[in-house]
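Exercise 7.
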Amino acid sequence: MTFALGRYTNRRGARTSVFLQRSATPEDSVDLTDTVKKSEKGSGSRATTRIVLADDQNVVREAIKCLLEIEDDFEVVGETADGLSVVSLVERLKPEVLIVDVAMPGLYGIEITRQVRDRSPKTGVIVLSRYVNEWYVTEALRNGASGYVVKQAEAHELTRAVRTVAQGRRYLSSPLSPEDVQSWLLQAERLTGDSYESLTGREREVLQLVAEGYSSTRIARRLSISVRTAEAHRANVMRKLRLKNYTALIKYALARGVLPPIEPLPPGFRALKRRRPAPQ
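Solution. The predicted structure, written as tokens, is:
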């Protein structure tokens, strides 16, 4: 099945139709963990910007890849749908740019950004998000993001962001303004006493998995650690954040942006009777 995504004009002025093709095989419906793309572009005089994509929505990720690879100086060398695999993929491929969705399962995009900053400092990170509020923008930039692109922006803003970040500069898509963002960052620097900062990288991973409903056994399997170690991390998280129960943890995760906010339904729509899975 082929989906037409429209027409796009690259910076040379050439108009190209963008299509997303989906094969009808059973394997196509399986969640993608990660794939590495071999180079298919010929060598030329222009330097190629190597990009890794991280988005848990397969259709969105494939559409972004189609958009980027219209440009003759872009190459998507790797992609993943799993938050926990992003950092290791970046360490292995060492791309110039990582584009990561803020709401990744397993490990949130902002924590991914922080770990990539520490473990692959030459990789510029662009956070892709539908949230335009102050907290998400400042947390992304404070944790090492070089770009913040809102999903409601025009498609050409993403290609512009990649080129800007690859050159070592910051990029903010509309409607964000540098003046507002700088003001937010200065205000955030004055705030102290955030207990989240006391958590280790592993404890932040455990916090998100617990908030997503994972039991200690599943956390251990997911992170390749023992159940006892998972329980120890879980206890440390509760202690450091001064949380007394699972409900308090969920409230904290929502307030801190570890989980995406729950948005109200449009008028006339009824919510399904669904609740977050309780830890087992």
